[in-house]
Amino acid sequence: MALAGAGMLARRIGVVQMCSGPDPAANLAKVAAHVAQAGTAGCALVCLPEAFDYIATSPEESLRLAQPLDGPLFMSYRDLARQHGVWLSLGGFHQLADDGRMFNTHALVNSAGQLVASYCKTHLFDVDLPCGKKITESATTAPGSRLVSVRNTPVGNVGLSVCYDLRFAPLYNALRHQGECDVILIPSAFMPATGAAHWEPLLRARAIETQSYVVAAAQAGAHHAARTSYGHTMAVDPWGKVLLHMDGDSEGLGIFDIDPAHLHDVRARMPVARHARWDVYGDARNAIMDVIDAAECLT
Q1: Helix 192-210 with 169-177: angle, nearest 10 deg
Q2: Could you give the maximum distance between any two Cα atoms of the chain, in Å?
Q3: Model confidence at 3, in pLDDT bands (50, 70, 90)?
Q4: How far is the first Cα of the chain from the last one, in angstroms, to the nearest whole number?
Q5: Distance between CA atoms of 190 and 169, rounded to whole angstroms?
Q6: Which residues does 113 contact at the CB level (< 8 Å), separation at least 6?
Q7: Which of 50, 37, 43, 107 has its CA nearest to residue 78?
Q8: Residue 269: is it exposed, middle or buried by C-beta count within 10 angstroms (0-12/13-18/19+)?
Q9: CB of 34 closer than 8 Å to CB of 46
Q10: Is the distance from CB of 143 to CB of 120 less than 8 angstroms?
């Protein structure tokens, strides 16, 4: 079985680790520098972490700063993609919803600056953390209700997700077996306690079980007095090998190359898609999913 788009595949992916603050303009300037560097390095796709646009000091401020996807802030990121000729994974944009709440939106923009696809985070982070902190994302954010796979991008078929989604394996099995994904993107802003315990094991598990490349751009460091993120941006190959692992504090750009032949070999030698017993434990290929052909955006 041939890898989708293998003959035209551009293999280089850039992954940004950053420490967003509450100033969208300052965050945009940081991203612009990283995207320019990635474009010069020959990256076809540049992945940003969750909340790349801003991390506010309060839920109220976060709602005040939110914009729609046709607003000026998101248009600035589309301009960056067009200016540098790269695709952008814009994970965790604070998209203003019609009801006054937000969507936590992972958008994919092509090198012409066109919005190819957008996925609204399905699983919201309503938790009591070991440190005693309580977070209720659903107080300001509406959940999405559809998964998203994008076919025929420069790096293959791509699955979109965001942060806390990482803990829900059925989502990724659907992206692999229904969405036919080769690369799965998981932009995140993990908390330090949960990151130290679970970040790497979960990312490697998602890569191994789906036999896909997993790319996880992360927020890192202290955003303000009330919020710190774990960092440790990672990329993992279909065999579970860690290809990129950044530290927990620094901002910067990581770059790695995907290998279509390796992906094909892993799947051919251990054909879990063919061995799956959907008749026993339910069919991962029946998810509510939008499968988008990126090539159609250019016609």
Answers
A1: 30
A2: 52
A3: very low
A4: 27
A5: 17
A6: 78, 79, 81, 82
A7: 107
A8: exposed
A9: yes
A10: yes
Q: Which amino acid is at 61?
A: E
CA angle 44, 200, 197 (to 5 degrees): 145
pLDDT digits (tens, 9 = 90+) for 248-278: 999 999 999 999 999 999 999 999 999 999 9
Buried b (16+ CB within 10 A) or exposed e, 229-262: bbbbbbbbbbebeebbebebeebebbbbebbbee
Q: What is the CA radius of gyration of the chain?
A: 18
pLDDT of residue 6: 38
User: Are 232 and 250 a contacting pair, CB within 8 Å?
Assistant: no
- Using alpha carbons, select from 170, 242, 156 the residue that is nearest to residue 203: 242
66 CA to centre of own chain: 19
Q: What are the residue ranges of helices labelled H in 159-243?
A: 169-177, 192-210
pLDDT at 298: 65
pLDDT at 4: 32
pTM over 0.85: yes
Separation between Cα atoms, residue 290 and residue 299, nearest integer Å = 19
At 69-100, the pLDDT tens digits run 999 999 999 999 999 999 999 989 999 999 99
Judged on CB neighbours under 10 Å (0-12, 13-18, 19+), 132 is exposed
CA distance 197 to 126: 18
Report whether 23 contacts 30 (CB < 8 A). no
On the question of pLDDT at 2 being above 70, the answer is no
Tokens 């303009």 -> residue: 25
List residues with catalytic annotation.
50, 121, 163
pLDDT at 5 over 50: no
What distance in Å separates the CA atoms of residue 270 and residue 115, rounded to the nearest whole number? 36
Backbone φ and ψ of 245, nearest 5°:
-150, 105
